[in-house]
């Protein structure tokens, strides 16, 4: 479904991604792992089109999209839940979700909003509350729900576990895992390798802008180099 070929990206003279190639098949959950500053967020931002690719190709269903505008990529089925959640704090839960559907012209938005409330019941209970009244975990759920309202085929999640308690992390990752049954493909960026590989089919490890390991979730968890560097064992 998604193929990235020789992708490079930079911030001025700072190279953030160097010759990155990876693939995500339809229906997979793929984890993108690595330490602080490895380039994970840049890769997601380059995929959603809010940061330019300097070199390389991004193919969605075989068609190049690396020059497409972000809204065109949303129309093609790519949605991102950004780092730090970035919900609109002064808007209600309901209005935050509605903003996720801003490109849609169909009549199923209310039904899909109810589906998000079914996935995250607490959002339904708090639908009239402003987003700033939500806990960190609830705001993360809202950011994922907002992305789902664009009806994505490929969902990009940037560090959903950041700053959350283990119980909430398990709950959110359980729900992300269940998106597979809805036919949604997921690329999830995480520093919490164990949690991400717990639900992922495969993973890639980035180090200073390059992919240094790749394999099935099991193979990565069993790889001594990955364990030493990232699992603290
Ligand atoms: P984190 O988990 O901290 O978000 P990351 O793996 O997502 O890390 P990126 O945020 O993609 O990494 O950063 C990759 C590199 O690009 C780092 O060296 C970082 O300092 C640099 N970088 C990121 N954003 C900017 C920016 N706006 N201006 C300049 N350099 C940046």
From TrEMBL:
Domain ABC transporter, first and last residues per copy: 2-233
Signal peptide: none
Pfam family, one: ABC_tran
Superkingdom of origin organism: Bacteria
Any GO molecular function: branched-chain amino acid transmembrane transporter activity
Family designation: Belongs to the ABC transporter superfamily.
Protein name according to UniProt: Amino acid/amide ABC transporter ATP-binding protein 2, HAAT family
Organism: Chitinasiproducens palmae
């Amino acid at each position: 479904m998604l193929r990235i070929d020789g992708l490079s990206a930079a911030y001025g003279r700072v190279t953030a991604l160097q010759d990155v190639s990876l693939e995500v098949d339809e229906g997979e959950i793929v984890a993108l792992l690595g330490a602080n500053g490895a380039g994970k967020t840049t890769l997601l931002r380059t995929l959603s089109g809010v940061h330019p690719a300097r070199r390389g190709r991004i193919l969605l269903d075989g068609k190049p999209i690396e020059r497409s505008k972000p809204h065109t990529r949303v129309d093609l089925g790519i949605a991102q839940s950004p780092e730090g959640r970035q919900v609109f704090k002064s808007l209600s839960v309901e209005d935050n979700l509605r903003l996720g559907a801003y490109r849609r012209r169909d009549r199923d938005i209310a039904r899909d909003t109810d589906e998000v409330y079914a996935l995250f019941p607490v959002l339904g209970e708090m639908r009239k509350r402003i987003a700033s009244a939500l806990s960190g975990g609830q705001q993360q759920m809202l950011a994922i729900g907002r992305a789902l309202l664009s009806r994505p085929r490929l969902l990009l999640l940037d560090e959903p576990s950041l700053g959350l308690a283990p119980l909430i992390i398990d709950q959110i990752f359980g729900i992300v895992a269940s998106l597979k049954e809805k036919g949604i493909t997921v690329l999830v960026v995480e520093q919490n390798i164990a949690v991400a590989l717990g639900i992922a089919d495969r993973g890639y490890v980035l180090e200073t802008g390059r992919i240094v390991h790749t394999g099935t979730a099991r193979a990565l968890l069993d790889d001594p180099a990955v364990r030493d560097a990232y699992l603290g064992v």
